[in-house]
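User: Good morning. I'm curious how zinc ion would be positioned relative to this chain. Could you predict the structure with it bound?
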Amino acid sequence: MFEQVDDAFCSQWNPDYSSKSSTCCRPTRGKRGRMLPCDLRRVKWSFCDELTQEQHETLQRSVDELPRDPLPEIELRLMEQDLGSLRRQAYCSIGNGFLVQGRPVIPSEENRLIVKNPRRCTQFGTDLMVAMLEWTGRQIARDYPSENGKSAYMILGDLSAPRGGCISGRRGRRGHKSHTNGKDVDLGFLAYRTPAQVHAPFDRRFDPAMNWQMLKRVFENPYVCIKSVFVDRAHIKKLRQWVQKQGDPDWARLGPLIRHVRSHRGHFHIRIGEGPGLPGCPEFQQIEGEEDEEMDGEELSQQSDPRPRTSERRPAKLLRNSL
Ligand SMILES: [Zn+2]
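Assistant: Good morning! Here's the predicted structure, ligand included:
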């Protein structure tokens, strides 16, 4: 049985909600176990039309004020709060959920975070997710100071849409198995890059030293436990060989949480738990539907904005049919 969520609340927040369906947390698989595509209304490249007024204002403020206020609000607010009393934002499970009052990632020089496709509006997560990324990015800025005009940026692919829900991929198929409730993030491999290189597609070059350091920082963030990291086995092998050569004892603890999943040759997929805790989140019960599997359309991460320039933009209906 999937979680029961109040219908009125669901219709207000869940972008996949349909009054025809009697359940809020709809199954993601149909008969014979086949993955269901996203609802037709949500087959699109950009989810910016789903922003709440508050999210819209937060994004606008970040553009207007960030140069003068380099410490984003999230850092201050979370430092002052008891994390245990944080509001609930992630509903249903990672594959069929939605996100309430999702928080956007706000890139800054301090946090070294880059949103690869900001015009897609899929940089929303729970407060815990954004706090984890903010904290990790600030550690990376200290671990790897800028040099020769290059910095070690943490490049973010999809998190979740403004209100979560299904993210479509090519030809109307489901783009991810998860990424529906703010608890999953696709993260490019860490490398020194110039600012001009950060919006390029994820690439497969993999520096085991830098990426092991980044993963250790991710795991040790004080805000939320990390349930799993998914990446291709070829990179896991490089990591393991490098770490064992260094004699780092943390591999025994963290290595089993870094797992192979297909279509992850160009990025990590990181899944968080429900609150702060040990790597793997043993304190929290396994939530139904949150099995340790993942599917990211690799092409989705490689994809740049397919929309024509404004002057040649086609009607939305035509565009929808072409995706
Ligand atoms: Zn992913």
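The CA atoms of residues 153 and 215 lie 14 Å apart. The mean pLDDT is 83.
Let me know if you'd like a different ligand tried.
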